[in-house]
């Protein structure tokens, strides 16, 4: 084997842990530097034959009115300004452009536009759990619950915990 092939092989082997490390840092960033907020949730279904036991969550923030004077499309980024309302955080407005850094906001992606509303995904719609915990959460969260979420300064979110009770009305 020539020296050039050996260098290429070594580079390929070393590049893999660097890429995996970068993906890990990217996913953990909101947990490390994010501001913790509590969001009202509504569970949907705790089981999936392929992915195992999890609680699928829907948020009051997942459906927002269309912003005036802008025509969003599915796949576009969207930014939800957050405002504190007691123990929970709620929508303080919808933007299609990233807001100022001083404001706390949640970054999402428009899933679809229908009926004058945006249907938004944030990447925090599933909470994986042991089978017993998923079934317990299904029972406890039948009428809604609260998700503890950490939001990074760039609006990316990571789910920390799902809890029953609290003021979970949308």
What is the gist of this entry?
Helices cover 24% and strands 42% of the residues. It is built from 2 helices and 11 strands, in the order H-E-E-E-E-E-E-E-E-E-H-E-E.
Polypeptide structure, described:
This protein is 24% helix and 42% strand. The protein is α+β, with helices and mostly antiparallel strands and 170 residues long. A hairpin with a 2-residue loop joins strand 5 and strand 6. The longest helix is centred in the N-terminal third of the chain and has 31 residues, at 3-33. The chain has one domain (34-164).
Oligomeric composition of the shown chains: single chain
- Secondary structure tally: strands: 11
Mean pLDDT: 82
Secondary-structure-based class equals alpha+beta
The share of residues in helices is 10-25%
The helix-strand sequence is HEEEEEEEEEHEE
- Straight-line distance between termini: 65 Å
List key phrases describing it.
170 residues, alpha+beta, six-stranded antiparallel sheet, five-stranded antiparallel sheet, 11 strands, 24% helix, globular
Helix/strand layout:
Elements: H1 3-33, E1 35-43, E2 47-48, E3 52-59, E4 63-65, E5 77-85, E6 88-95, E7 105-114, E8 117-121, E9 126-128, H2 131-140, E10 145-151, E11 157-164
Antiparallel strand pairs: 1-3, 1-10, 2-3, 3-9, 4-8, 5-6, 5-7, 7-8, 10-11
